[in-house]
Amino acid sequence: MNVLGYAAYAADAPLAPFRFERRTPRHDDVVIDILYCGVCHTDLHQVRNHRGASRYPIVPGHEVIGRVRSVGPAVTRFKPGDTVGVGCMVDSCRHCVACESGHEQHCATSPTFTYGSTDRHDQTRTFGGYSESIIVSDGFVLRVPEGMDLAGAAPLLCAGITTWAPLRRWQVGPGSRVAVMGLGGLGHMALKLAKGLGADVTLFTRSSGKEADARRLGADRVVISTDAAQMAACAGRFDLIIDTVPYVHALTPYLPTLSFDGTLVLVGYMGALDEQLNTAPLVYGGRAVAGSFIGGVAETQEMLDFCGQHGISSDVEVIRVQQIDEAYERMLKSDVKYRFVIDMSSLKSQELDA
Fold first, then answer.
1. 121 and 267 both lie in a single domain
2. How far is CA 342 from the centre of its chain?
3. Which end of the chain has fewer CB atoms at under 10 Å, N or C?
């Protein structure tokens, strides 16, 4: 199937139109016309080869909202016209311990990612949601609840599930005390979801100017993390801290704010932290530092259903695909509240202009 997309051809080149072939649909596939695609920091990292492993051309995008065009003969859960989503993965081995327990993101042979991966059946490359349409196995397609704002739903498929998964793993609910580090694409979703689950929610931030927005998004209080007195007042308070900070930063100052058996879970940064972690608050306080990576298919559907029931969506700025390079530059400056989403109908004007 010949598809128009928007691609990065090199790390230092602007994204541009790209025609490519989608693989032939298989018996369990769903063909989806893309309506909206969220813009994730991972897209920027991949496009600009920040991790040194990008293969060009790249069609980014793993926060996909679309409408089913057709389904394979083995598909029973979806039909043409359904509104659906596709997140960060489009396949996995499906039989390892992680996959069988519903954690396909930890597949022993690595999941097949929505873009930048190799299809495990026919060895074709995967291309993402900055495109007209996508073909995905029905086991990795998600149902979007009726009535959801579709643009606002797109980032739920990455930012939403990334923050939902630790909230569920550590059993957050009424009476839980949760803190969120950082107010960005991930942080604003962590506030909304933790509040939706009934937790008492605090935002840690270095900026005093974020209090009004944080409270609007669900924070019960805001703590300036550079203020020693405010930090000391939080000692032993939090059952869970969700760390959404996407760059190198110190963890040690936050550890004393955890309660006994509390956990700080990293979701925003992958790589070496250039600090010597003080383990005393961990050892003496029975505390832990952990990591969490997106989420499995079933828990992503659970998160979407929860958001549909509670009227939760991402705060977004909708753009045309032709604005994507500008959006990347603004992301680097944190100049978005809180997530860009591409209206993929703008691709049609691209083709008309060509």
1. no
2. 15
3. C
Question: Which residues lie closer than 8 Å to 346 by C-beta, 6 or more apart?
Answer: 320, 321, 322
192: pLDDT strictly greater than 90: yes
Q: If you count them, how many residues does the chain have? A: 354
pLDDT-derived band at 350, boundaries 50, 70, 90? low
Q: Residue 275's pLDDT is what?
A: 79
Q: Which of 78, 41, 48 is nearest to 244 (CA)?
A: 41
* Residue for token pair 């509240």: 337
3-state secondary structure of 214: helix
Of the residues 246, 274, 291, which one is the last residue of a structural domain? 291
Cite the DSSP H helix spans in 59-155: 97-100, 150-153
Same-domain check for residues 345 and 243: no
**Which of these three, 291, 319, 343, is where a domain ends?**
291
pLDDT at 353: 55
**DSSP category for residue 272:** -
- 228 Cβ contact list (under 8 Å, min separation 6): none
Q: What is the CATH number of the domain that holds 180?
A: 3.40.50.720
DSSP, collapsed to helix, strand or coil, labels residue 239 as: strand
What three-state secondary structure class fits 29? strand
Q: Are 207 and 305 part of one and the same domain?
A: no
CATH code of 313's domain: 3.90.180.10
DSSP per position, 149-189: -HHHHGGGGTHHHHHHHHHHHTT--TT-EEEEE--SHHHHH
290: tokens are 């952990």
Cβ atoms of 242 and 180 closer than 8 Å:
yes
Query: pLDDT by residue (tens digit) across 49-69?
Result: 998 899 999 999 999 999 999
Question: Which percentage of the chain shows pLDDT scores above 90?
Answer: 92
Q: Quick one: pLDDT at residue 348? A: 83
- 223-272, pLDDT tens digit by residue? 999 999 999 999 999 999 999 999 899 999 999 999 999 999 999 988 88
Residue 117: both structure tokens together: 């991966």
Average pLDDT over residues 294-308: 98
End-to-end CA distance of the chain: 20
Range of the domain at 35: 2-158+295-353
Number of domains in the chain: 2
